[in-house]
Amino acid sequence: MRVLVVALIVQLLVAGAAIWFAVEGWPFVGGGRNAEPVRTSADAAAARLDVPPRFEAGSPTDGVPTPTADRFDERAAFALLRRQVERHGWRPAGSGALRELAVDLRGRLPRGRLEAVPGHTGLRNVVGRIPGRLPALVIAAHYDVEARPRGFVGANDGAAGTAAVVTIARALARRPIPRGAREVRFVLFDGEEEPAGSTDFLRDGLRGSRAYARRHGAQVGELVLLDYVAGRGLRLARERSSDAELWARLRVAARSVGTLRSFPPAVQGAIYDDHTPFLAAGIPAIDLIDFAYPWRDTLEDTLDKVSARSLDVVGETVLALALELRRGA
């Protein structure tokens, strides 16, 4: 009898541990609950997940599902991604190329305008909105790229998120505004990347998002950040610091449009990104980021590494989430 009791206790302990790790993330898969967020190349391995190989864009075997909805124009999104890379090239914060891009993007957003980043001369967030009641839902990305290495074009790191946000904004702007709908804002942050010579991303980066959170945080209900969202064979696990409830709603939206396979029930390491100032202000925020992207922060982050199919998965999913959230409280 004593042996049976001991065996039962052991089984209960094992089951309890399995449930806990399923919720909190398994050891050595993106760090523990209190893992320090990462952003530097040296820390990249801390946020990596095992992901399928990247396949050729458009291949039926690329592992990326085909959405059942068709509200997001992935061709227009990829064309805008390409335009940023080919026409504007290397566009770090404060550069002439980025200022030109800002004017271009302003004209593509509903009610688009430029908003200065206080304390950082020449930096400007590009903002747009679909009016409604507060608190607003913010859908965001950063549109600057790395200051180093020189010549970095950021096909996935900068151009992809920007293109997706603009295309989502245009899709939502074409739809009637339901009675009592919440306001939806679209923000393209300047100065996300740290300046050349900086060795402290948290201190010197996130300039545009910090400024926006300080100025407008009281009006924001949730933030959905898009970063590294066009890599081939896309898989986006929850970034550990991202709000778990809001991420769960994203996965419900993904299920509704047939894209759940790209949002596995897994957790990657915590990452400092433009959602961080909003989380610090108590605002639910999530970061869609493939931090295991093999060409991150290198000159190889180019057009041949990204896919319109991946943009489509993210675009349709975030659109579905936005349509649901703007109807809610």
Summary of the model, kept short:
The protein is of the alpha/beta class and 329 residues long. 36% of the residues lie in helices and 13% in strands.
Walk me through the structure.
It is a single chain. The protein is of the alpha/beta class and 329 residues long. The chain has a single domain, classed as Zn peptidases (Aminopeptidase, 3-Layer(aba) Sandwich), CATH 3.40.630. The protein is 36% helix and 13% strand. The protein has 9 helices and 8 strands. The chain has a 6-stranded mixed sheet with strand order 1-2-4-3-5-8, sandwiched between helices. Strands 6-7 form a two-stranded parallel ribbon. A hairpin with a 7-residue loop joins strand 1 and strand 2. The protein is globular and about 45 Å long. The chain starts with a helix and ends with a helix.
Short descriptors:
single chain, 329 residues, alpha/beta, Aminopeptidase, 6-stranded mixed sheet, two-stranded parallel ribbon, 36% helix, disordered N terminus
The fourth-level CATH homologous superfamily is: Zn peptidases
Gyration radius over CA: 20 Å
Quaternary assembly? single chain
Spans of 5+ residues with little confidence (pLDDT < 50)? 1-10, 12-35, 40-59
Helix content: 25-40%
CATH topology: Aminopeptidase
Tally of contiguous helical segments: 9
Largest sheet, if any?
A: 6 strands, mixed
What does the average pLDDT come to? 87
Q: What is the name of the CATH architecture? A: 3-Layer(aba) Sandwich
Which series of helices and strands comes N to C?
Answer: HHHEEEHEHHEEHEHEH
Structural class: alpha/beta
Distance between the termini: 55 Å
Question: What is the beta-strand fraction?
Answer: 5-15%
> Total number of β-strand segments?
8
Number of domains: 1
